[in-house]
Structures are given as structure tokens and as C-alpha cells.
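Hey, can you fold this one?
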Amino acid sequence: MKNKILAIRKKTRQGDLVTLSQRIIEKLEDNPNFPNLPPALFELKKVIPEYRTSLVNAQGREKIMVAIKNNKKEIVLNLLEELSGYVTAICKGDKTLLLSSGFDVTTEGNATLAPAIEKLEVELGPPGEATTRLKNITGAIAFIHEYATEPPGPNTIWIYKGTSLSTYTFTELTSDKRYWFRVMAIGRGGQTSYSPIVTRVIQ
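Sure. Predicted structure:
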């Protein structure tokens, strides 16, 4: 049996998104189980009042107001999915930890495994930028893109960005410095798999 976060897009009514988001913000902030919170939490905290206002304004069904509401809703959903990926990676199926995040949790008997990752591409861009990219990855619902500034070991500190995309561009890296990169894929059942580690000297 596998504990996982309940799918947000399919199970949550738009009016309930405000309540769910506020609960998640309250539970994750200052929660020692979830260090290094991703920027998505603070972006969610900022956009929720705007989404709440858009719900009220759209009650008259005016097309412009409805479009604004739908746009805000999509932003909220994307941020919640990013946070869901982060929480899933931290909790590794632990129901108590999952519940402490504020997300709704379900249990599945047959979970879908995260795909095996055979290759990670790291493309250098303008000075201070590097893009991590996975190709032909199916079955994953979220990705954690990570880099370290020292050779990987048991005490290495990884800087990460959670996203629903298999590609991410890191910026503001230090030129002429070596970095190590990896990506975690998260399957629908909460299982995870890591890519090989790739090292590059930043331009």
C-alpha cells in the first residue's frame, strides 16, 4: 500500500482551492520536516488573495472576469503541483509527514513506478546559466532539478527546484566554477528515481 498526495486538479473544486492553499501554507511554514521550502510556497501565498478576489469578481459571469479567474486558478494549480512534488520527494510515502504538509492524502495498492533515467543532458548557456534536461521520460508527474558546488558525497548540500517540467534553467551561477547536476523524477505513486550526476564548468 502506497501513501500519496491526492490529485489536486481532478479532486478539488475551484472554491476549495483557497481553503486547501491556505492550509498548506500554514502547515509548511516553519515546519521542521520541510527545510529549504521552494519559492512556489511564497508565490502561492502572494497569489491566493488575488485568486479569492477573482472568484468574487467572476460571479457575474462577465467574460473578462471569468478569464482572469481561470488564469489565476491555473497559476494556483501549477504552484500546488510544484509543492506537491517537493513534499512527495521529502516524505517518501510516510503518511504522517504527508499529512503534516497540509495536503490531502490517499492510499493506493498499485502505484506507478517513476521511470528509470539513463541520461541527463546539461547544456551551458550564457554566463552563469546551465539547463538540465531529460528526454523521453514518461510516467513522471514532477521533477526535482538539483545542483551542488562540491563533489557529491553523503554530506553534500544540493540546491533544488521542483517543477512539472523535465527541463529547467539555473541562473546566477558562478562563472568558471565547477558544478554537479542531477534530476529526480517522481512517479504517480510517489516513487522516485535519480538521473546520473553530470558535472560542468559554468561559462
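The two ends are 47 Å apart (CA to CA). Let me know if you want another pass with a different chain boundary.
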